[in-house]
TrEMBL record:
GO CC terms in record: cell cortex; cellular bud neck; septin cytoskeleton
Name of protein: Similar to Saccharomyces cerevisiae YGR059W SPR3 Sporulation-specific homolog of the yeast CDC3/10/11/12 family of bud neck microfilament genes
Keywords, sorted A to Z: Coiled coil, GTP-binding, Nucleotide-binding
High-level lineage: Eukaryota, Fungi, Dikarya, Ascomycota, Saccharomycotina
Keyword hit for Nucleotide-binding: yes
Record region (Disordered): 388-409
Coiled coil region boundaries: 354-388
Compositionally skewed regions (Basic and acidic residues) per UniProt: 388-404
Family: Belongs to the TRAFAC class TrmE-Era-EngA-EngB-Septin-like GTPase superfamily. Septin GTPase family.
Gene3D superfamilies with a match to the protein in the record: P-loop containing nucleotide triphosphate hydrolases (3.40.50.300)
UniProt cross-references to InterPro entries, sorted A to Z: G_SEPTIN_dom, P-loop_NTPase, Septin
Listed SUPFAM superfamilies: P-loop containing nucleoside triphosphate hydrolases
Species in which this protein is naturally found: Geotrichum candidum
Amino acid sequence: MVAGESGLGKTTLINTLFNDKVKENDDKLRYSALDHNKQSEKTTRIEVHEMECEESGFTVKFSIVDTPGFGDYTNNTHSWVPIVNYIDDQHKLYMLQEEQPDRSQAVDTRVHACLYFIRPSGRGLLPLDIKAMQELSTRVNLIPIIGKADSLTLKDRERFKTKIRNSIQQAGIEIYCPNDVDAKAHPDIDEMPYAVIASERLVNVKGGRQVRGRQYRWGVAEVENEQHCDFIRLRRVLMEKYMLDLVDSTAEKHHQRFRKACMLRRIKHCQEELAKSSEDGDKNAAAPTLPALVPEPSLEGGLDTLVQISRYGREYLEKGRIDSDPIYRERHALLNEKYAVMVAFHDDRFEAWRTELRTKQAELNNDIERMNLKAEQIKAEIESLEGHRGYKPSLEREPEREPARGLQKARYIMRR
C-alpha cells in the first residue's frame, strides 16, 4: 500500500520499483478535476492493482493498493479512515476464512506493508501525518518515505530525517522492525525514513551508461545510487531481505492483534445476549448456554464456545465497524446536535404559544366573569324596577302592553 498526499511521486516510485508501468500517472486526472463541470468525491479512494513479478524462475503475485485523494481537500480530518477501514476489512476477511471448515481456497489479501509518503518540506510531520501514521502503525508494517528527496540537499535531507525520527518517537508511532533482529544490526532498517527519488526515464551519464534518474542542469540524480537516495535500501527491504518477514510479522503481530480484539468483542456480546436470554425466563427457556465462558475470556469452552461465538460473524463485525467508524460517529453526533437544537427551538415555540394561549384564556375568563357580574347587576335592577311597579306573575298571559320606560331601558342595556 502507498499512502500520502498527491504529488509526492507515489505512482512513479511503484513503477520504478517494479521496473514496469504498473499504474498510469494520474496527473491528467488531477488537472481534469479543475473542470467546474466535474465533481469529484471529496474522500480518499482505494484502488487495487494486481500484478506478477518473475525473477530467476520464481513468480510472486503482488497487490498494489493506491489511495488517491488522501490529504487533497480542505478538511482532511478523517481522510485516513478509508485506508484504515480497508486494512481492517482485509484482516476481517482473512479471519472469517480461517474460521471456515474448508480453508484450502483461502486467499490472503491482507496488507503486508504500507509506504507512507512525507512531503519534503523541512518542517517535519504535519498533524495529519502524525494521526494517519499512528492509526496505520497498529494495523500494518509502516515504512515512512520522504518523497522527491532530490528537492533537498544532502545536509538538509539528513536534518529532515533526524527531525522525522524524533517526531515519530515522540508521537509513539511504531514503524516496521524485523521480528527477530535488532535494527542496529541492519543498516537498511536503521536508515528509515527512506529518502527516495523515482523516475521512469533513462538518462545518459558519463561513460555512456544509461541509468534511471532525473536530469538537471547541475547533473543527474540517479535512482539506483545509494549516495543520491535510499531507493536501493527500500527495494532490498521490500523485495529481497525482509519480504518474508513482512508477511510473517503481519500474520503474527498485526493480524493476531486484530483477531484478539474482534474475539473479545464477540465474546462480550455473546455473554450479554446469553445474560438477556436467561433474564427472560420462560420466554427463552431453550436458549443455548455458553459453557465455561467466564468474565475473563479464556476460551476454555472448547467447540461449544466457538459455535456460540460464530453466530456473530460477518454481519455483526460489519455493524461493529460502522458503529466505531470515526466519520459515522462524527456525523451521528452532528445530527444529534442539530436534532437537539431543532427540538429545543420547537419546544421554545410551543412554550411561547402555550403561554400566549394561557394569557388569552385568562383574559377571556376575566371578561366572562365581568359580564356575569354585569348581568347579575342588570338582573337585580330589572327585579327592582318590576317590584316598584307592583308586578305580579299570573297564570294567564295578560295582553301585551307598552313596556315602561325603565323596563325598556333595562332590556336595552341587556341587549347591549
